[in-house]
Amino acid sequence: MFENIYIQQRLQKANNLRANNLNPYRNDCSINLSNANFLQQYEYLKSKESNEKKQEDCKVWVKGRVKFLRLMGKASFIKIEDESALLQIYFSQNELGDLFGILKKNLEVGDIVNVYGFPFVTKTGELSVHALEFKLLTKSIVPLPEKFHGLTDIELRYRQRYVDLIMNQHVKQTFKMRSRIVSSIRRFFEDKGFLEVETPMLHPIPGGANARPFITHHNALNVERYLRIAPELYLKRLIVGGFEAIFEINRNFRNEGIDHDHNPEFSMIEFYWAYHTYKDLIALTQELLHYLLESLNLPKQIPFGEFSIDFTQFTIMNYKDSIIKIGGIESHIVENKESLESYLKGNNIAIEENVSYGKLLSYAFDEFVESKLINPTFITQYPIEISPLARRSDSNTHIADRFEFFIAGKEIANGFSELNDPLDQLERFKAQVAEKEKGDEEAQYMDEDYVWALGYGMPPTAGEGIGIDRLVMLLTNNKSIKDVILFPAMKPIEDSDNTIIEEHI
Q1: Which of 26, 71, 176, 210 has the most CB atoms around its CB within 10 Å?
Q2: CA distance linking residue 89 with residue 120, whole number of Å
Q3: CA 54, CA 474: separation in Å to the nearest integer?
Q4: This prediction's pTM
């Protein structure tokens, strides 16, 4: 595995350290300041008027990975990077004695070190640490990418995220922002009185979404289990049980394609609010977005690729109107099933046999509308045929009390007033089973226990799911979902060790 000549050279240097009674993997690190805190605390030393105390009296312990190395005769400079910042270190034979010669021969970019010393300012004006003690904590045996070009191969960055994080500080900042976004979402719902809950990830029946599941086998029970495609049906069981405002930040798994917007495992928040409607959720979603922008110190207009997303403008439009006004299809075509089917076929859109009118509308929406929804837009009144878990509208039984929320041409959220009529839900499940029998692998399964739960009575409830990965993409200006998931799914490659080593060197 480590036969590469460059790695062999580094392994030899690790052995050299051992020969000098220095453990290349020691475990006695001392720290009292991060690099960023050091730079902030001693910034005043860069002022010519600074005479508050002798610099030698300010002793510090710092640590980090060597990112730059300039070895000279009896003195050397390195730059080390911890999670917070890059910091310059000066060390010399005067203070380190024989250790200096050992370090000169065996210290390399990539090694992790711990330094004790005092702050000073170099002749070029750079605040640095003058080393009095020097520990090599971890010997790096695999070379980092060449520093001037970094790790630029996009696929390799995703496969070896650990190297990507070492080499690209902006990537690290993206994932720090992701953590802040998730924390802010959690805080928003807790402040609203929602209770965070946890539901199973292994399901006897995959439900809550139209998606193809991953299948596994439970040995002890000798039964098939499905990785969760959505937590919805379990969360609504909890509403039946008496909780009135709940949320779950969850991982879901869907055995489907991979592209810039889809990963087989992804993060969502789903929340359910008893005694409320989908219209309340629309208002709550707008409030959440404003809260995130404020808590993350982001402007109301943010860039995303070639777009500028304006969060001061939220649009609400019903499904058919969007197809007519945004999709550009004349109303008399949209209102007639045969005309719409003919129009879609005339535009070379593949249509299933015996497709319902509601499904035809979804073809038209997906093809002609979705990509044009740039500023925050709520599309409401979805066809009932594509909304198997949503409540029928009282004013029109062919549509659901449902919305989807779009930004930059991407679906960000899906919400609706929940279907709580057990008989209606049973018939919807039967229709889904019929679709599955006709070959629709994403159609939902029958879940009799869930129908039985509804029989005990679920109060009028509104529920919504928001895709966290896509939301993070928007708020960090990343066009691919792989840029906001630490370890995205990747197609296997052959001879990966040799390929990766050569790419690094």
Answers
A1: 210
A2: 10
A3: 49
A4: 0.91
